[in-house]
Amino acid sequence: MGQETLSLNSRKIEKAAAAGALAGAAINVVHADEAGGIDTVNGEADLRKIAAETAFEDELIEILIHPSYDEHAPDHVVLAVNATNQVVFRDVPTKVKRKYVEVLARMKETRYAQHRDPVSLDRATMVARSGLVYNFDVLHDPSGAKGMAWIRAILLEKVND
């Protein structure tokens, strides 16, 4: 069977896969995002899985980014995925696609503090502490427990030092 190129949105792919119209086909799946970036999946692809993942990434989640203690911090945060920006204002409940929430959850910083050895004052140890750059809450996730497990797994990832 020859290679085919599909130019379908995720809903059309999901419907075609559910109907069995694409069973066993060797395919190239081309996905274009809002900015025109293209992802290609080659070979025997499970289109239902691709469509479900895309739909999951595009779900709207309601979040709240907390205000900053820094008086010079901007009142908004700019999140970017594939060169498409999403502006979220602090202290305003906002619905954004899950893929932008993932960016927000992965924005972590590490700060270091020096701890002197009380016995030997010429020795010090650097102690790292990592945390979110922007503290936020998920107010509503339409995927319920699956969505909460997803965000929790991202938030628990260790920061590479």
Which descriptors apply to this entry?
alpha+beta; single chain; 3-stranded antiparallel β-sheet; elongated; about 25% helix; 2 domains; disordered N terminus; about 160 residues
Topology:
Layout: E1 4-6, H1 10-18, E2 27-32, E3 38-43, H2 47-57, E4 60-65, E5 76-81, E6 84-89, E7 94-97, H3 98-106, E8 108-116, E9 124-132, E10 136-140, H4 145-155
Parallel strand pairs: 1-2
Antiparallel strand pairs: 2-3, 4-7, 4-10, 5-6, 8-9
Describe this structure as you would to a colleague:
With about 160 residues, the chain is an alpha+beta fold. The chain has two domains: about 5-55, no CATH class; about 60-155, no CATH class. Helix content is about 25%, strand content about 35%. It contains four helices and ten strands; from the N terminus they run E-H-E-E-H-E-E-E-E-H-E-E-E-H. It has a three-stranded mixed β-sheet, with no helix packed on it. A three-stranded antiparallel β-sheet has the order 7-4-10. A two-stranded antiparallel ribbon has the order 5-6. The radius of gyration is 22 Å and the shape is elongated. The termini are far apart. About 10% of the residues are buried. Mean pLDDT is about 80; it is low at about 1-10.
